[in-house]
Amino acid sequence: MHIHILGICGTFMGGLAALAREAGHQVTGCDAGVYPPMSDQLRALGIELIEGFGADQMALKPDVFVVGNVVSRARLGDGSPKFPLMEAILDSGARYTSGPQWLAEHILQGRHVLAVAGTHGKTTTTSMLAWILEAAGLQPGFLVGGVPLNFGVSARLGVGAPFVIEADEYDTAFFDKRSKFVHYRPRTAVLNNLEFDHADIFDDLAAIERQFHHLLRTVPSTGRVVVNGLEESLARVLNQGCWSEQRSFGALVSDFSAEGDASDFAVLQQGRVVGRVQWSLSGQHNQLNALAAIAAAEHLGVAPAQAAAALGEFQNVKRRMEVRGKVALLGQDQGEVTVYDDFAHHPTAIRTTVDGLRRQLDKAGKKNQRILALFEPRSNTMKLGTMKAQLPWSLEQADLAFCHSGGLGWDAEAALAPMGERAQVAGDIDCLIEQVLAAVQPGDQLLCMSNGGFGGIHQKLLAALALKAG
């Protein structure tokens, strides 16, 4: 089969392309501003990439066009279509489908699908679960919205029955407004957490809860639903009806709970110690992610002790507290400035990421080291300003905060005013770097948070710091 993918450089569609190629299909694709790292990965697989969405791509005559949710019926200022290829597909009557639908029909059918859903931690938990199953010899397939360092790729078919997938609640396509995860038909479903997000497509939290319940409706009676026992929103979802075995985690009375620090803790099953996780990760959010993965893996017969031991070898995911470099200011051995890259963009994720770093520093006896939080409100929800009032709360544990306000339709300075002199705002990356350089001190931790490339700020910061160090 020849498939042509519209929007191929996104993390999900790029992963789908890699799976299709591995499965023996001919794969081509297009995107606006074909960009690395996904473009490099796809070209290495022999996948032809085309710049833009021109109607001339109809000449490829694929068996089916696979349409990403970046594509719409939008019009430009002159009235011409933003996506001429999509208009040509519709006009010609050519066969087309969504990415999740194609994946369900050609990759997931007949597999034991383990789907990880939630507002936060999907990528990390999916990666943990895939690694646990790999360590147990189950050779799972997976599709992750990031690159698990244990595997070095974001997707693979695998040879065993299990297939682990990051289950996104974002809509499927412009012609299918259901959440992506409704297509996956999991036998094991993880509901990691649930907060309001994606304000561009959901009116309120209840609308997202409805989609989560649609997911529950697809889990068979012999399946398992793994649910965070700390989340009231998920309790409401379950109360709408659940027809499968349930396992809870997180709360003291849950099936799976933890005792100890987030980097070294005992795993309890119904109050009894059944394993121990000792790893380099920090933050309660990662402790909860681990419990979710352990509970899901048990559904496939992996003992919690075995799962916990496997997590000791878990290397995290690229762009999750990833150290991009260190620079020693003024030649001081103890004065290294560390630059991190993290994917956090929702206020809750920002708060847990900053808090996790603070706890990590405190535990290491570095309480005097400052955290400088650099972030850009880049997601559709944040661009709309829906959660701007939560930003000061999310940055409480940061000593200083620097916000890139370029492209926002709301006043970032006003939103961050409760932080006083601890917060600064810049309209472009170069100005932001100047602000940071004026404030940075030996030993500072520079935490860069964005769900985009952040204008290459990490390397620019490291270069500027090296110049400052002389």
Automatic annotation (TrEMBL):
It is an enzyme of class 6 (ligase). Residues 319-452 form the Mur ligase C-terminal domain. Residues 2-108 form the Mur ligase N-terminal catalytic domain. Its cofactor is Mg(2+). The keyword Cell wall biogenesis/degradation applies. Pathway: Cell wall biogenesis; peptidoglycan recycling. It holds the Pfam family Mur_ligase_C. InterPro entries: Mpl (IPR005757), Mur-like_cat_sf (IPR036565), Mur_ligase_C (IPR004101), Mur_ligase_C_dom_sf (IPR036615), Mur_ligase_cen (IPR013221), Mur_ligase_N (IPR000713), MurCDEF_pg_biosynth (IPR050061). Signal peptide: none annotated. GO terms for biological process: cell division; cell wall organization; peptidoglycan biosynthetic process; peptidoglycan turnover; regulation of cell shape. It catalyses: UDP-N-acetyl-alpha-D-muramate + L-alanyl-gamma-D-glutamyl-meso-2,6-diaminopimelate + ATP = UDP-N-acetyl-alpha-D-muramoyl-L-alanyl-gamma-D-glutamyl-meso-2,6-diaminopimelate + ADP + phosphate + H(+). Residues 116-297 form the Mur ligase central domain. Keywords: ATP-binding, Cell cycle, Cell division, Cell shape, Cell wall biogenesis/degradation, Ligase, Magnesium, Nucleotide-binding, Peptidoglycan synthesis. ATP binds at residues 118-124. GO terms for molecular function: ATP binding; UDP-N-acetylmuramate-L-alanyl-gamma-D-glutamyl-meso-2,6-diaminoheptanedioate ligase activity. Its EC number is 6.3.2.45. Reutilizes the intact tripeptide L-alanyl-gamma-D-glutamyl-meso-diaminopimelate by linking it to UDP-N-acetylmuramate. Belongs to the MurCDEF family. Mpl subfamily. This is UDP-N-acetylmuramate--L-alanyl-gamma-D-glutamyl-meso-2,6-diaminoheptandioate ligase. The gene is mpl.
